């Protein structure tokens, strides 16, 4: 093979590599289909008692922050979200309960959710579920309320809640987050009679909490000196007149 032929082959290979790179860039920037990535926050749970002694039922209300990111180059649609609830210790094969999205609320208003359900529903601008669009390379964060009605108390040591999503990229519901909850008698009483709420992290979430190493770290960060019981009196400040002040005083 002559040097000229070698140069021609190398040039051809370089041109092919450049063409492949250009096609990959074109695919990623304009042709890649909708690729949703779903991230969930902590799942909150409350129980609301409705009715009176003669006729009483319960609303089981879950709230969850969901972020959907489109890693594709084309617009996509989130068509549905639901919470699949099961009770692992229940001896009924194939049982489940599906909770649809009841409301969507602004993420900034989640702190307003209280034990008084009808009050916060009137205060927070809650809207019913509507499918939404995610543009190319866009992320959307929303906060959803999933609710169902229970006629009788639900007492279970283990409650599994799994978030499922339906998008235009798939033709079936896909699980995107799972939570292990519980409804022991103690928890039920706290939620129904005490107005308490419980929060659960998704499986696989990193454990983020207070850690001290060594455990007695703060036994060594203090002082043996006697600390004052009141703040020190600030020193008296004397404000000297400036040249501008003196000039104005002389002309007055």
As a whole number of angstroms, the C-alpha radius of gyration is 31 Å
Tell me the span between the first and last alpha carbons.
Answer: 103 Å
Shape descriptor reads extended
**Spans of 5+ residues with little confidence (pLDDT < 50)?**
none
Strand residue content: 35-45%
The averaged pLDDT comes out at 86
Count of alpha/pi helices: 4
Q: Which structural class is indicated by helix and strand composition?
A: alpha+beta
Largest sheet properties: 9 strands, antiparallel
Strand tally: 9
Which H/E pattern describes the elements? Answer: HEEEEHEEEEHEH
The portion of residues assigned to helices is 10-25%
Quick overview of this protein structure:
This protein is α+β, with helices and mostly antiparallel strands and 252 residues long. It has helices at residues 3-31, 117-123, 185-193, 243-251, and strands spanning 36-51, 56-70, 76-86, 97-105, 132-134, 139-150, 156-167, 174-183, 198-200. Strands 1, 2, 3, 4, 5, 6, 7, 8 and 9 form a 9-stranded antiparallel sheet that branches.
